[in-house]
Design brief:
The protein is mostly beta strands. The protein contains two helices and 21 strands.
């Protein structure tokens, strides 16, 4: 058999490539650099690459283990091969949203990662979204796809048939032949799970591309309006070209972490381990410099954020500058000239950098 024939036989799955079929990063919810499994509230990232919007009621989001060997184990038969999920809980029920209210759990696809779909052209390809879900309340739920401008929307429903049971869902979406879908390093596609929506954000019809900002399908239940303690779990989220759902792409954990770090990197664990390697205070400026290189080049150049307490001699705050997509420099001033300052001079300080879409 020729190499071309071999490629045709083994080079694609369901009309897409064999590797990197999934355009969603961290779809199995196993990377959580920010929180290390702690619960978070509104408008944050519960796990890497997945954020939430909450404008009414109160919801809690948390990475949870779905293996019985973990202290965070959640009962119920787990989907084969998955170790983590995100648990979404109703903390304060509210069934009366304002017309523009919106509660979602979502992720973005960068423009550079979807150009093969030809969206916005006459040759736009269909895609398939697949995922595992479990909810304490059975019923009709919603998934929506929007462009970066939120002016073109596709809303669909999926039904959770049995409470507290893991179920596998697939949704096929036709490729949009209109709309703006950037193919640069900006946000291009947003995938949203609807958790409750005001009337102006509910689709006028389902399973069709609509002009406008619609984030939940008609007929879906308002999750935020369910009783306090109601839960929804999600994992194994996959977005792939073609109209066939293939098995979830299990990438090596080191590779998945690197993909996440293009958008966010935690330099030191949250809470703050000593990180500074060392710097010398020059005689003239009495300034000690500390240089940091990122593990992964970021999507764009952004300023890092200091977390924790920086205590270097007489300097109480670091000055961060000269940042690029590959690293940054921090320095402390008003120091004793000629001395070498090590990580022991910095207590409970770490940095984070976010280049999220």
């Amino acid at each position: 058999m020729t190499n071309a024939a071999l490629l045709g036989t083994f080079g694609d799955v369901g009309g897409g490539p064999l590797m990197f079929r999934n355009k969603i990063i961290n779809g199995d919810m196993r990377i959580d650099q920010r929180n290390l499994g702690a619960a978070v509230g509104a408008n944050l990232y519960p796990v890497d690459r997945f954020s939430n919007q909450v404008t009414y009621g109160t919801l809690s989001f948390q990475q949870r283990s779905i293996t019985s060997t973990d202290s965070n184990y959640e009962s119920g038969s787990a989907p084969d091969g998955f170790k983590n999920s995100v648990k979404i809980s109703v903390t304060t029920s509210n069934s009366s949203p304002a017309t523009t209210d919106r509660n979602t759990f979502q992720t973005n696809v960068e423009g550079l990662n979807h150009s093969d779909l030809n969206w916005g052209t006459a040759s736009a390809k269909p895609i398939t979204i697949s995922f595992w879900c479990k909810a304490s309340v059975a019923g009709v739920y919603s998934l929506a796809i929007q462009n970066y401008a939120n002016d073109l929307s596709y809303c669909s429903t999926f039904t959770i048939s049995s409470a507290n049971t893991w179920e596998y869902k697939t949704i096929v979406v036709p490729g949009p032949t209109s709309g703006s879908w950037p193919t640069t390093s900006t946000s291009a596609i947003t995938v949203r799970f609807g958790l409750g929506m005001g009337s102006l954000r509910v689709a006028t019809s389902n399973n069709t591309w609509l002009s406008g900002d619609y984030r939940q399908a008609t007929g879906a239940l308002q999750f935020t309006g369910q009783a306090n303690g109601s839960t929804l779990y999600l994992t194994g989220v996959q977005f792939e070209a073609g109209s066939v759902a293939t098995p979830f792409e299990q990438r090596p954990v080191g590779m998945e972490l690197s993909l996440c770090q293009r958008y966010y990197e935690q330099i030191g664990e949250p809470g703050g381990a000593d990180l500074v390697l060392g710097g010398v205070a020059t005689a003239g400026s009495q300034t000690a410099y500390y240089c940091f290189s990122y593990k992964v080049t970021k999507r764009t150049s952004v300023s890092p954020v200091k977390n924790g307490t920086w205590t270097v001699a007489n300097s109480t705050q670091p000055i961060i500058g000269n940042w690029t997509a590959t690293g940054f420099r921090a320095y402390a001033t008003s120091l004793a000239a000629g001395l070498f300052y090590t990580h022991n001079d910095v207590t409970q300080c770490n940095f984070s950098v976010s280049a999220e879409l």
